[in-house]
UniProtKB/TrEMBL annotation:
The keyword RNA-binding does not apply. This is Response regulator transcription factor. The keyword rRNA-binding does not apply. It comes from the Bacteria. Residues 10-126 form the Response regulatory domain. SUPFAM superfamilies: C-terminal effector domain of the bipartite response regulators, CheY-like. It comes from Actomonas aquatica. Keywords: DNA-binding, Phosphoprotein. The modification 4-aspartylphosphate is found at D61. InterPro entries: CheY-like_superfamily, NreC/VraR/RcsB-like_REC, Sig_transdc_resp-reg_C-effctor, Sig_transdc_resp-reg_receiver, Tscrpt_reg_LuxR_C, WalR-like. Gene3D superfamilies: 3.40.50.2300.
């Protein structure tokens, strides 16, 4: 077997269900830019595997024996910040969402997500961005809006130095509901590459690094 190219994304699968890991491996191995470097069945194994393989991306279940996914994420991201964790779980419980993201996860997907969304999430997080399930994005926005409303002396947000174009605003609104680039392209009737260009402009003008920060910043500014 030939070694993966330097451009390949190294992925570690963490889930206590062997059948699910096997199905996920088969799915991901169909994409030549992805290389599955290892698997783990619980949080303790995940930490050991992350130390050994140093993966780019870790797909992490939350509810596992011995050590849960939140604590495993916290330890891995503290020790190996270059390994980025995407939670892949059956649950979208509010508390688990906040705990996982606070522990250092940069993505949150449900196991019911379509395969193309999982692939896009891996690719985006490998590029330094984040990807959150649409239903989870809505929860996060509502959560942070409530927190902002509780701050009695909250300073007014700084206005943008360069306003967003009408098309960039369209892309931003779809982004805020958690749509992927492919889904945004289909809904706006434009090429996916064009969406990526608009997305890059949106992040730059908002002064943020990823999609989740963009959605929160847009809510703060009253753009969505």
């Amino acid at each position: 077997m030939s070694s993966p190219s330097s451009a390949s994304i190294r992925v570690l699968l963490v889930d206590d269900q062997a059948l699910f890991r096997e199905g996920l491996r088969i799915l991901l191995e169909q994409h030549e830019q992805l290389t599955i470097v290892g698997e783990a069945a619980d949080g303790e194994q995940a930490i050991d595997a992350a130390r050994f393989h140093r993966p780019d991306i870790i797909l992490m279940d939350l509810r596992m024996p011995r050590l849960n996914g939140v604590e495993a994420t916290r330890r891995i991201t503290a020790e190996m910040p270059d390994s980025r964790v995407i939670v892949l779980t059956t649950f979208e419980d509010d508390e688990e969402v906040y705990e996982a993201l606070s522990a250092g996860a940069v993505g949150y997907l449900l196991k019911a997500s379509p395969s193309e969304r999982v692939i896009e999430a891996i690719e985006l997080t490998a590029q330094g961005q984040s990807f959150i399930e649409p239903s989870v994005t809505a929860k996060l926005l509502n959560h942070f809006s409530r927190l902002a409303g509780q701050e009695t002396r909250r300073a007014a947000p700084q206005p943008l130095t360069e306003p967003l174009s009408s098309r960039e605003l369209d892309v931003l609104k779809h982004l805020a509901t958690g749509h992927s680039n492919k889904e945004i392209a289909a809904q706006l009737g434009i090429a996916e590459g064009t969406v990526k260009n608009h997305m890059s402009n949106v992040l730059g003008k908002l002064g943020v690094l990823d999609r989740t920060q963009a959605a929160l910043r847009a809510r703060e500014l009253g753009l969505i």
